[in-house]
Fold each of these.
Amino acid sequence: MPLICLGLEGTAHSFGAGIVSGDGTVLSNVWDMYSPPTGGIHPREASRHHSDVGPTVIRNALERAGISPQEINLIAFSRGPGLGPCLRTTATIARTLALRLSVPLVGVNHCIAHIEIGCLESAFEDPVTVYVSGGNTQIIAYAGKRYRTFGETLDIAVGNMLDSFGRAVGMRFPAGPEIELKAEKASSYHQLPYSVKGMDLSYSGMLTAARKLHSEGTPLSEICFSVQETAFGMLAEIAERAIAHTKKRELLLTGGVARNDRLTDILKGVANRHDARFHRVSPPLAGDQGAMIAWTGVVQHRAGDSLKISDSHVLPKWRTDEQDIVWREVDG
Ligand code: ATP
Ligand code: FE2
């Protein structure tokens, strides 16, 4: 019987259900995003959203894939990192389904899933990964059975910086796409803090400075342009250093901010300069969704990983480098 995995994603704002077969075909990928009317995400309200929309999202995923619940033979869920209430709601749905269908359960690290879905799409074997989203900004490379974080933000994530700036100037959440559109209309650059410290970076100073420019009446498109050029330039610098040091020959861009075309172009330039191949995860698989959880579940299950229901508590602070990558054959 072919392996068919249902993956559930629910670490933060989105609840997603994706169905992926053992050969890596994405049969369906459905998600519903909670968008708070004002302000940031409230964990309890987001988790209520997940329990409200969960059954419909899962039903739609099954329908679009054209399979019955009985054909599912593996359940994977996002076990962490993320917001506690959201993780617990998603885990409860996953455990219930695994028990009801009598199939194994696999707990997936959300950040690792962003990498694995990129490796599936690109067929990369050993990339340097730039993982950029609302909650994370990390440069990651595999070494000694772990995905090691070579560099990361010391304060807020690049997506969070974009969303916070957008909120301050009246944009809807998430603001990344609107900032990208506005930036395309400008070419005047205003100086913003460029904050790279070794392999780490920092975005909170840039957020304050961009807000100040706005309060001084600088045209919004020019601020958006300047924010993108500075923020993405910082990422390019540490990605370049990571490639130069690790001598890896593949550069992968993943996470919600990977949807940005300007960031993609800048990192493509870095890869070209170092004779490395480049891949940006395709926009539907770049953000939070269930297919990446399902595929990582397949990979882990094949390597013999499974989770007893009684051990399946969630891990809100689970770091990328805390999981043994038992399924990788290359020795980085
Ligand atoms: P994680 O839990 O991995 O941190 P997340 O909860 O932030 O993920 P994602 O869907 O991976 O969710 O990423 C959402 C982020 O991507 C938001 O900050 C959003 O503004 C940003 N984003 C989406 N599209 C674009 C774009 N075109 N340009 C820049 N940023 C974008
Ligand atoms: Fe994510």
Note: The pocket of fe (ii) ion (ligand 2) is lined by residues 110, 114, 133, 255, 288 (CB under 6 Å).
Amino acid sequence: MTPDKAIDKNPAIVSAQASIKEAIALMQDKQTSCVLAIEEEKLIGIFTLQDFLQLITSRQDWEKIAIAQVINRNLITLCIDNVTNSLSLLQVLQQYRLDYLPIVTQDGRLFGLVTLSTLLENIAQELQTYQEIEIELRTNEQALQINQDRLDSILSSLDDVVWSLDPHNFQLLFLNTAVEKVYGRKIAEFIENIDLWRKVIHPEDKERVEEAFNALYSTLRQDIEYRILLPNGDISWISVRARLITDASSTPLRIDGITIDITERKQIQERLRYDAFHDGLTKLANRNLLIDRLKQAIRRSHRHETNLFALLFLDLDRFKVINDSLGHVFGDRLLVSVAQRLEKCQRIGDTVARWGGDEFAILLEDIADTNDAIAVVSRIQTTLETPIIVDDREIFVTASIGIVIGDAQIYNHPEHVTDLLRDADIAMYRAKSRAQGQCEVFEPSMHAYALKRLQLENDLRRAIALIASSEEKKSEFSVFYQPIFSLTTQQIEGFEALIRWQHPEKGTISPIDFIAIAEETGLIVQLDRWVLKMACHQLSLWQKELPHLAPLTVSVNLSGKHFYQSGLVEFLDRVLKETNLDGNSLKLEITESVVIENTEAAAILLDLLRERNVQVCLDDFGTGYSSLSYLHSFPFQVLKIDRSFIKQLGTEEENDEIVRAIVNLGLILGMNVVAEGVETPEQVSQLKDLSCHSGQGYWFSKPMNSDAMTDFLLKNL
Ligand code: C2E
Ligand code: CA
Ligand code: CA
């Protein structure tokens, strides 16, 4: 068809053509969309969208208007109600001599081009553009597909389950393959059985999950962790994050969620939890768990006084010796065996705990009375009677046990758990002080005693701090001297230095009452060194002031704790140098147990002392091991017979024989034998008859301070 010149000249058509061009120009110019309005097959105008909206809203029959929206230079969307087929469109074009009119589907794809065939050539170029656009659109579609594929592959490679449910009928909308790994079941099973995910919830967690799921409709999001049952019977932990997706009017559209397998994390948490409440070595409950259970027991007994409980505190006797001599690995194995035996003694509901080191604690719940607790204790002591075999070695173990009954009157608040533990500890110490393998039930008087002890310890620290700060004048300590006499010449040979403590409020405190505390707390080292220094200074002073005096020696007591303290020899050297004293003026008194504790170290130390001519006295002989082999193999120069033997002299034949044997032993080994605690002239003569060299005791003189001792020396010159 050739363009009809007549029509061409039709002013309406001219105007329509112009309008199209105008529209395109306007659109290009303004970079905006334009609308061609056609009414009853007549182009009524070209409008901007805004103007057009105004136009149609002002008209009641606006839906009859067929519009072509100029989207860009080539695309004109037709929103046609009354012009539904291409024929009428052709009429429009013919009538108005429009060059072309593209038809675009609602989703934006080019559907066709309405045109007059004669104009085809003119628009060939444009057509090509449409094809390009189509290609572009198709490429976009492909890109979209690629993205979709990529998304699918990501979803299927995830370890976490991604899912989507219809919120009304719970049909699955989406589920990725990870579900097979997490639930151990095929995707198909979940699709076939929409209730399967519910069925596999651990029975104990079902109610909780159901509640959370229901709450989703009000909270829109729920995070929950729960257990599921796997087909093989195993249990897995999962974490589920669910979101309710709604439209603008809050109508639920989907439930989307992610499910993560957290079994491993839970196992780690569980292990950490276990570790936090159990002892790594013995696997028994640890302090934390014990304290927790004790608090519960206190609460229960507070509520019902009939709920009586008891706490046993158990400390192995001489464990340190085993540990030090046979090594820590051995010690650890022994502790494990002891723990196993203790566990066998426990009743259902009891808690056996390792308190630390060689200390154990047992909480006995629901006991009738103290006898029940004592029965458990004797069971424990009986099981420990059989030697424990570690590395083919038989070890005999005993334990000192303190018992506290959880009296609801005394321990009536969970915070009293510390009192409870303290009292059990006090009772245990009391048992230990009696002998090995004993038990003791706590009584409030013990607490008073322990308090007194603690007070004494504090006072001791304070008093030692004073001497350490070298404020000698304020010192509460002083050194007394007790002379030692030769039984043959009746002459004074030397003195034993004995510490005295003048407490500002309590008066004189006997060394018997504070030396043990000083040893336990390690304070003894400072104390012994102070005495050593003072005694050496005093002796050197007497040597200077009383030059006519025969050479005298001073004996200083050394506690076992001190004996092995590093730096002892250096300290000795310094004091001797400072006081200008010869090594042979000094004697150190130690007990047998000190040597036996660590024979190798003792041998080295004793050699070092011998190099310095410092003599070593074996104190309190006869009360300890009295082992001949030690006496023989170590270089002791003096043997001090304990005063308990001297006291018995002349009472029974047998006692005299013991003293005789000890003296003879000393003589054979070439030692100087000193009798302690000589109180009567009869004892003096008897000892002389037995050829004992020296004597010390009230018969000769009580210990006295340095001034009194100076007078005493002057008198005895
Ligand atoms: P010890 O080493 O056996 O000291 C002798 C104790 O017997 C002294 O008691 C002394 O006063 C007492 N005594 C002396 N003659 C007689 C007597 O005829 N009859 C009686 N019944 N007792 C007599 P003291 O001074 O009370 O010391 C007690 C213990 O305290 C000492 O026993 C010693 O083991 C320890 N000790 C004293 N001073 C020190 C010290 O500076 N360091 C250390 N580590 N321990 C010390
Ligand atoms: Ca002594
Ligand atoms: Ca002694």
Note: The chain has four domains: 3-132, 158-267, 278-442, 463-702.
Amino acid sequence: MSDHCLFCRIVAGEIPAEVVRRENGMVAFNDINPKTPVHVLVIPERHVDSLAGVEGLTPEERSDMLAFIAAVARDHDLEGTGYRVTTNHGEDGRQSVHHLHWHVMGGTRMSDMM
Ligand code: 5GP
Ligand code: ZN
């Protein structure tokens, strides 16, 4: 836990968020500035800076994270219509919060751009 990390503070309950699922050391909450009708952020409770630091998570956490992402999409009834999962790293990736997070987006047709 980093005192200065926004998402660690959400994990700790110090900053409010609309949590939609929480289990196995993972938390999902609605993005504060949704780009699509469903725009959920999935994070591991344990801090790693980005996907580049994924080896800081245990093999079990990494595996749970994938299953958890799929469960969030299922919770939002996105399996039939489809969804997109992305994570950003670094400047070219336009990462703005430096705690690994996955954008789970759906409810509309995505652009070809991403
Ligand atoms: P990134 O650009 O790092 O991939 O994505 C960061 C995401 O976090 C953005 O989509 C942004 O809207 C979201 N975000 C930033 N601050 C907060 C916050 O305080 N609460 C929530 N729920 N989302 C946030
Ligand atoms: Zn953090």
Note: The CA atoms of residues 23 and 68 lie 8 Å apart.
